[in-house]
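QA checklist item 7 of 12: single-chain prediction sanity check.
[x] sequence parsed
[x] length recorded as 287
[x] structure emitted
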Amino acid sequence: MLKLADYKTNEKSWWCPGCGDFGVLAALQRALFELGKPPHEVAIVAGIGCSGKIGNYINCYNFHVVHGRTLPTAMGLKLSNRNLTVLAAGGDGDGYAIGGNHFLHAIRRNVDITYIVMDNQIYGLTKGQVSPTSGTGFVTRTSPGGNIERPVRPLQLAIAAGATFVASGFSSDIKQLSSLIKQGIEHKGFALINTYSPCVTFNKVNTYDWFKEVLVNLDEEPDYDPTDRAGALRKLIETDEQVRGLVYKSDAPSFEEQFPGFREEPIVEQDWTIPEDEFDKLLARYR
């Protein structure tokens, strides 16, 4: 029988006390436990940044990649072994700045992976610069006069690009976040779970108290329909994406279901041995 402790490692965390990523870690471990996913059937690909350490604290296959490359690596894993539950994890900088191009193409391909973005609206690892989701006017050490750029709107961007599962979590609500992660894993296709995960050290604006005051809980709105694409976009515009809960969901064939010749048997379990006579013929073509 699996226990929650089976999804934890002995590595000591170096996150700051109070970091929102602790809540994301707890929610992810709980989601895997409640789904009954054996650790050896789960793989997580983590990016660069504070959030990139999350893979070290979850007992499963862990691949720590270079900055911004979580999604192509995760897609490659899923296509190589479709029996794996593949997760990608990173921060708003890793996902929406250097990894922004991969983000768009992962959405349109609809590969069956779950992408958890820990959005703290700042670069925490490098000591507090503005990130793609930092608000206009946001003051940091490198923008003492206030951020002059407009922030990326990842939820609207994802829906506009054709995402089939979009959710917004809050690391302080582990129960709801765990439920969203479970739904994302069970969804057949690309699932984005953008999670507000406060940085207690460098972001003194977007704090736990601030999020608790401004976030609208869509799961408690009786008239909200997460299958209404236009309605979801209107809600995100009205609230400036300050929401939590299931934002949008639709059914569409996954990349794997449409890929020509992609067999049910995982590629890693297929016999790729080439008979010696065929190999010799192949070599002869290049002599």
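[x] summary fact logged: The chain has a mean pLDDT of 95.
[ ] second reviewer sign-off
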